[in-house]
Amino acid sequence: MTVTTAVPATNTPATNTPATNTPTPASPAPAAPGPAFTVAAGEPAQRVLDEAGPGARVELAEGVHRGALWIRHPGVTLTGAGPGRTVLVPGEGPGEDAGPDVPRLHDAGPEVVSGVTVHGDGVADVRVEGLTVRGFSGAGVYAHSAARVTVHDVTAEDNAVWGVYLRESTGCRITSCRASGSQYAGAALSFCPLSEHLVEGNDLHGNAFGLFVDNSSGARVLRNACHGNAIGIMLLNQVYEGEPPGGVTDCLVAGNDLHGNDLAAGAEPDGLGAAGPPISGVGLALIGTHRVAVVDNHIHGNHPTGESVMGAGFVLGSSKDWGGDDVLDTYALWNRVHGNTPLDYQLGADLGRQCFAANTAGAGDPPEVQGWRR
């Protein structure tokens, strides 16, 4: 293990930002930069994270690192030599756990372990980047009750429940990641309140959901490729017993390529998407959402291979039966929706409360809608 001294941050003048109508809680100032550590494969990375403290940069050297990691200090960067070069896998011995103070991962028992967990009092400004996280019984990367967590250039492979799962957190960023082989979503924002979230440039395949925006608001979902899932992208407003208040509002879904989503989820008790209804062959679904703009997406070649409660490449629907709401104030512009079966679009919504313009599609329900042309 080697240690280098971090260079102090350069002071920059304060800038004025416009006021908004949405109050945001005060957050602690970013931690001062700390030392940088390089941890070789086989060395105790968790001990380094614990002892390095706020603001540290912990570099996992090339090789296979064993054992789950827990980031509990603000301002920490955990980085590797690059996906496929630095690989984090479960420990070989018994007794590995996520720590007694980490909230249980949703849709999983207390025994599951996530690869990298971000959680703790005042944890903010954490960055996880440049590594592969593989084979954990929980999520690849899991953050809970944190602020400004960035997951960048991470490959999450064959983690049993979620790929990258950020929950009840603000200012989340998931960028340039790849996630596959998860029972639920490759990437997910869950119960994240209205703030500036960004999910951009990810490749998400072989999951129940490519991307799941679950009762989270303010997300910009940009230029992602979602393919080979049961559903490419789903935004869902639904009330769950014992969960925080939800809702999905004020999101932008733009420039995404959603194709070839043909897996079947929700059909087997312990299978893909086991907690949800059967879904297969869907590109994009907005269920119970408010004020979502859907712009310049390519939704094509999505075909169900099993039972599905949705029957089109692009779906608008109500979640009132599950404690949510009707889908309202959708703005769908310049989307190309073609070659999906059984339909290209299915608009289960009050069309007077939506705005459609310059979209192209084949067969849909209803057959003729202003703003959609063949």
TrEMBL record:
InterPro entries for the chain: Beta_helix (IPR039448), Carb-bd_sugar_hydrolysis-dom (IPR006633), Para_beta_helix_rpt-2 (IPR022441), PbH1 (IPR006626), Pectin_lyas_fold (IPR012334), Pectin_lyase_fold/virulence (IPR011050)
Keyword Transmembrane in annotation: no
Domain of life (superkingdom): Bacteria
Keywords annotated in UniProt: Repeat
Residue numbers spanned by region Disordered: 1-37
Carbohydrate-binding/sugar hydrolysis domain mapped to chain residues: 90-232
SMART domains linked to this entry: CASH (SM00722), PbH1 (SM00710)
Compositionally biased intervals (Low complexity): 1-24
Record protein name field: Right-handed parallel beta-helix repeat-containing protein
Annotated organism of origin: Actinomadura luzonensis
